[in-house]
Design goal:
The complex is a heterodimer. Chain A has 8 helices and 13 strands. By secondary structure, chain A is of the alpha+beta class. The two termini of chain A are 38 Å apart. In chain B, 37% of the residues lie in helices and 19% in strands. Classes of the chains: A alpha+beta, B alpha/beta.
């Protein structure tokens, strides 16, 4: 009897059906020398200095396919970016799948192919993985966990503790694209826009930035909670105040328009391929130029500076007049965006 | 896009601020009725541009905030029936009732769906014919016509399992109640979108009592110029109703919306959270549409006994008697993550707006 073209509980049973799924779907998409040995664990090389960067993230985004990406590419980019912004060079990745009974195998193949391509473009090898199947209703379609190991070069000292008064704050491109792209697909909110997710890897951008200016104080990728959450975290962790300039924020006109209609603040909306960097005032110009030379940083902009607000506070000079505080988003307006 | 920038021009704002400073002599308290106005005031830092003679006071114009505990309790009670699906606007599910919120009920298993329009609730009813689908209808004259239209839609579609739990409130009654408050108000920035439906006749009792009324849009320059109009009237000792939002509002309002509300609803006494019962300030499906009334269908009566949590001064804030920073709970135990009072829940609630955008009272980092 031929296998069903959708996921059955047998596919997660650990027997022949599981093995076939791996051979049919995952190996062709992820193939590399380490994975292809099919051992219970991946044996990988360590860097000479013995320092590793290690991060994990779980992806439950709904819908699983969206303009600009899918849950597979997002699962690679998300974890790669967490390693990258802490100064690590991502190398190896694990992928764990929770599949809902009845999930079409054709969709799983698409997702795996997209993960494989994303990993390749980041220079990362998916070296180990796992698949579980749960009964219909036990999960929604597919959930993916990825963990990654990166090499942490000597001398990396990125930390909010190094942020100083006068440092300039640079964002690598337009904000809010991912959250708005997902939101406009949601049931009951079917907007017709051309907004696509910014899901993309940032590791090459970070490498170029650190080469141009090793003294960059710190970097973060503002995902859930958007730029406001990230800036507030940094302000609190560094004990410094931050003032950003509304007029300097790169925001797509279409994203502004959707935010305006829905009463959202683009500062609170998620990104999946953007970073915010704190650079010394003297070298911020050089960092900005380097970023703009990289495809992931074409629309980079200096958006503010450290100082001018009380310790731990983030304020924004509005395009109108005067300042207002920038508060992190509260609650769950946009569940399952990553 | 044009409308998003041209009403937010900082240079023009400075000019209007200059005119206000020059013309304002008398010390006045001006109420901005609507939560949308409060957002713009705080978000754009307008109070910083005003002279000491002008004090802005936030009003009760947040539909989520004035929804009574009894109304929320009734909604929760309805969801205890496993054959009921409750459809609600997203904001509403976080507001605490007497012992819990709809969100807590949802976490415990109640079937509560968030909708963006009552028509979506009709759709849910159509797709779930074996269940009773109840739309928890909140809001002023801006949303009531849409609820009325959803009832007509359900009737036209033959969806007989759609019901409305109406917590709608209407504006004329509350305006009278504000006049009776012990705090002196000298003028009103009146709600632009409500007036677009109702027209301006309802402001006559206010202007008769020498309170200038200026119907305003929601952009910062709309509000600045509306404040200037109030100042000019006060200084000239006149009180008229002005429409400073002509791109949306006419003096007669929207006759289509008025007609459909009249057809579907009858006025009832309603409890406003923090304020109490105001005669004829609510709406319920009636006449030919009585069968859509969830209270009638399930034999429920909304309780009118309202007690605020100890220490919470939402009642005084909604009536313009106190400001969020006067509350001991503000930014100590009451914050948007864990709201104590209704005004901290909704995005249009006065406390939430002061918390998110205001610079006062936020120095104490108690979170």
């Amino acid at each position: 009897m031929p296998r069903a073209d959708y996921i059955t509980l047998a596919r997660g049973g650990g027997g022949r059906a599981s093995e076939e799924l791996i051979e049919e779907v995952f190996i062709p998409a992820f193939s590399n020398a380490i994975l292809d040995t099919m051992s219970d664990s991946a044996i990988i090389d360590a860097p000479e200095n013995g320092k590793l960067a290690f991060s994990t993230d779980t992806f439950v985004i709904d819908p699983i396919f969206f303009p600009g990406g899918d849950i597979g590419s997002l699962a690679v980019h998300g974890t790669v970016n967490d390693i990258a912004v802490s100064g690590g060079v991502p190398k190896y990745m694990s992928a764990g799948f929770v599949l809902e009974e009845g999930f079409p195998i054709s969709d799983l193949k698409k997702i795996a192919a997209s993960m494989g391509e994303a990993a390749k473009s980041c220079g990362v090898s998916i070296v180990t993985g796992d698949t579980k199947v749960v009964a219909r209703g036990g999960a929604d379609k597919v959930f993916i966990n990825t963990s990654a190991i990166g090499f942490a070069p000597e001398g990396i000292k990125l930390s909010p503790k190094r942020v100083e008064e006068g440092d300039l704050i640079i964002v690598s491109g337009t904000i809010g694209d991912h959250g708005i792209a997902i939101l406009t697909l949601r049931k009951g909110l079917e907007f017709k826009t051309e907004i696509v997710s910014d899901s993309q890897p940032l590791n090459r951008l970070v490498e170029a930035m650190l080469e141009a200016e090793p003294d960059i104080r710190m970097m973060r990728d503002p995902t859930r909670g958007g730029l406001s959450a990230t800036l507030n975290e940094i302000a609190k962790a560094s004990g410094k105040g931050i003032v950003i300039d509304e007029k300097a924020l790169p925001i797509k006109q279409s994203v502004s328009a959707v935010c305006e209609i829905l009463g959202l603040d683009p500062l609170n909306v998620a990104n999946e391929g953007k970073l915010v960097a704190f650079a010394p005032q003297e070298s911020a110009g050089k960092v900005l130029e380097t970023m703009r030379d990289n495809p992931a940083g074409r629309q980079a902009a200096i958006i503010g500076r450290v100082g001018g607000a009380g310790p731990g506070r983030v304020e924004m000079k509005t395009a109108f007049v005067g300042n207002r505080i920038v508060e992190p988003l509260v609650g769950d307006q946009l569940p399952r965006i990553c | 896009m044009k409308y998003m920038t041209e009403f937010r021009d900082g240079e023009i704002a400075e000019k209007i601020a200059g005119a206000i400073k020059k013309q304002s002599r008398k010390k006045i308290r001006v109420m901005e009725f609507c939560g949308g106005h409060t957002i713009s005031l705080l978000k754009y830092g307008i109070p910083d541009l005003l002279p000491d003679t002008i004090e802005m006071v936030s009003g009760p114009g947040c539909p989520v905030c004035v929804t009574s505990r009894g109304e929320i309790d009734t909604a929760i009670q309805l969801t205890e029936n496993p054959d009921v699906i409750l459809a609600s606007f997203g904001d509403m599910i976080r507001v605490p009732g007497t012992s819990e919120s709809l969100r807590q009920a949802k976490a415990k298993g109640a079937d509560i769906r968030i909708v963006y329009s009552p028509d979506d609730a009709v759709k849910i009813a159509d797709e779930n014919r074996g269940k009773d689908v109840i739309f928890f209808a909140v809001g002023f004259e801006t949303t009531a016509p849409v609820t009325a239209s959803s009832i007509k839609l359900a009737e036209a579609m033959g969806v007989d399992n759609y019901f409305v739990l109406s917590a709608h409130k209407t504006t004329p009654g509350i305006l009278g109640a504000l006049l009776a408050e012990e705090v002196r108000l000298d003028g009103f920035i009146c709600p632009g979108h409500v007036t677009a439906i109702t027209g301006t006749a309802m402001y006559k009792p206010l202007t008769d009592a020498c309170k200038p009324c200026v119907v305003s849009g929601f952009e910062p320059l709309d509000i600045m110029s509306s404040i200037l109009s109030v100042v000019q009237q006060v200084e000239k000792n006149v009180a008229t109703t002005e429409i400073n939002y002509r791109r949306v509002v006419s003096s007669s309002g929207n006759p289509t919306a008025q007609k459909i509300m009249g057809e579907v609803f009858s006025p009832v006494d309603a409890v406003w959270r923090g304020i109490g019962v105001i005669p004829n300030s609510g709406l319920k499906p009636d006449g030919a549409y009585k069968r859509f009334d969830a209270c009638a269908k399930f034999g429920l009566k909304i309780t009118t006994d309202e007690k605020e949590t100890r220490g919470c001064i939402c009642d005084k804030i909604l009536r313009g008697l106190k400001k969020p920073v006067d509350c001991k709970l503000f930014n100590t135990v009451c914050a948007p993550e864990e709201p104590v009072g209704a005004c901290m829940v909704s995005d249009e609630g006065t406390c939430s707006i002061y918390y998110r955008f205001g610079k006062e009272g936020r120095e104490v980092a108690a979170r």
